[in-house]
Amino acid sequence: MFLGLSSETWRRAVFCKCPACGKGALYKPKSFDLAPACTLCGTSYADNDSADGPAVFLIFVLGFLLVPLAIAFEFSFSPPLWVHVILWGVLALAITLGLLKPLKSLIIQIQHLKRGP
Ligand SMILES: [Zn+2]
Fold it and tell me: Which residues are within 5 Å of ligand 1 (an ion), measured at CB?
């Protein structure tokens, strides 16, 4: 249990699996869009909407993680400005693309748990 969610819920969120069966894909292939329904159990995802929740989580994570690192990096090494632009820009983009789908999946898992089967 972490934050009141079972390890199975976290596994389904991290691997973007169906909140009902835990095996079917939650997203369309190579897309950030939800699939219309689970390909294995048929659970419809039509009522699920994570809205701006994942983006807000990412803003908090990136803000609290990258800004102190950038400040510490500047005071330690004083690199040219272009190093900051490339380093933190690429890092922010990589973290965003890596975490957006699992965070959206986590919100949908929680919606499914609160709504019930
Ligand atoms: Zn399913």
Answer: 18, 20-21, 24, 38, 40-41, 43
